[in-house]
Design a protein that fits this description.
Elements: E1 16-17, H1 29-37, H2 51-61, E2 68-71, H3 74-85, E3 89-94, H4 98-106, E4 110-115, H5 126-138, E5 142-146, H6 158-171, E6 174-178, H7 182-185, E7 203-208, H8 210-213, E8 221-224, H9 228-236, H10 245-256, H11 260-281, E9 285-286, E10 293-297, H12 303-308, E11 311-312, E12 314-315, E13 326-330, H13 334-351
Parallel strand pairs: 1-11, 3-4, 3-5, 5-6, 6-7
Antiparallel strand pairs: 2-8, 7-8, 9-10, 10-13, 12-13
Helix pairs in contact: 1-10, 2-10, 3-4, 3-9, 5-6, 11-13
Length: 352
């Protein structure tokens, strides 16, 4: 099976990895120590119900523990949800995170694809709502949306999300909103879809500790739904020890970290603005982002020349709806971003 994502540091030698969207500071010291110290418990099985982690998370979010399911990263929860629901017909956007379609196909679900308009920077507007209602009338079991979006980093307006939720509620469909990058865009939970969780059982929110807390190697994510029966069905279709002891302990420590998300968000925003300006000056078509990465298009060949310099970026040509020439780069530390831009200027000057 071909590896389809960024962060493939095992196939390629590298110095700088811009291909995976992890915060530029990596894991905080408190989180790292919590994970390391937990190895003293590693001779025991992890708590399959993740009780301490869910309790800390529920308190942080102000919701019931019964509404939370922990998983081995967001992708694990996407597959668990699909296997629990067993949809016959599901809708995804394009371009979008590859696992939505992969999960639906693995459950023999017919996939409906809404191609986001390239000329409108791949944004989701009222036109999508019209298409969604038409498809819901024909029968949809699951709808996958993502905000901030992967791979563009763009936000779906909250009024659009709320209108989509109302339609899904009306027609008996489940709306899944992937908020894996929400901390990079929002300062408070009121800006997300979380306040809608208590109002309806038609909404599932997926989130990840990977991006903001720099924990991709530990694998930790969580899902939220006020439908406790759905949560129980998700538990029934997965193996019981999917979240390791180090991941659970790291998650608990991350929730206690004061000021981390605000510091990272402010730093990333400043560097993202600078990086977007530089990429635009190079003549690349850069798409608006509220996350810690930028999608851009150029007709120049970049992958191999950058690899020769030990720099990895994400080739996005395997995303449905994108073609050769689309690339994504993470926003990293100032000196690393500057090195990437110097390398790109060198490549562009060589090619004329």
């Amino acid at each position: 099976m071909r590896y389809e994502h960024g962060g493939d540091i095992y196939t390629n030698e590298y110095r700088l990895d811009f291909s995976s969207n992890i915060n530029p500071f990596g894991m905080s010291e408190d989180v790292r120590l919590a994970a390391a110290n937990s190895m003293k418990q590693a001779s025991a099985y992890p708590d399959s119900r993740c009780r301490r982690f869910k309790s800390a998370l529920a308190e942080k979010l102000g919701i019931s523990e019964k509404w939370i399911i922990a998983g081995n990263g967001a992708a694990d929860l996407i597959f668990s949800l699909v296997f629990a629901v067993r949809p016959k017909r599901g809708l995804i956007l394009a371009p979008a995170f590859l696992e939505y379609e992969q999960a639906l196909k693995s459950a023999d679900c017919r996939t409906v694809v809404y191609e986001r308009p390239k000329e409108l920077d791949f944004t989701v507007d009222k036109r999508f709502i019209k298409v969604l209602e038409a498809e819901l009338k024909q029968g949809l079991d699951l709808v996958f949306l993502c905000s901030p979006d992967n791979p563009t980093g763009g936000l779906i307006r909250k009024d659009i999300l709320e209108e989509a939720l109302k339609l899904c509620d009306r027609y008996g469909s489940l709306l899944v909103v992937d908020e894996s990058f929400y901390e990079f865009a929002f300062a408070g939970e009121s800006e997300t879809m979380l306040p809608k969780i208590e109002e309806t059982k038609s909404l599932v929110i997926i989130r990840s500790f990977t991006k903001m807390y720099g924990m991709p190697g530990l694998r930790l994510g969580y899902g939220i739904s006020s439908d406790s029966r759905l949560i129980e069905r998700m538990k029934m279709v997965r193996q019981p020890w999917s979240v390791s002891i180090p991941a659970q302990e790291a998650g608990i420590a991350a929730l206690k970290t004061e000021g981390w998300t605000g510091m990272v968000r402010n730093y990333v925003k400043k560097q993202r603005v600078w990086l977007q300006e530089q990429l635009t000056e190079l003549g690349f078509r850069v798409y608006p982002s509220s996350a810690n990465y930028l999608l851009f298009y150029t007709d120049r060949k970049l992958m191999e020349p950058l690899k020769e310099q030990g720099i990895l970026i994400r080739d996005c040509s395997n995303y449905r709806g994108l073609t050769e020439g689309y690339y994504r780069v993470a926003v990293k530390k100032e000196d690393e971003n500057e090195e990437l831009i110097r390398a790109l200027y060198g490549i562009c000057s060589e090619n004329g």
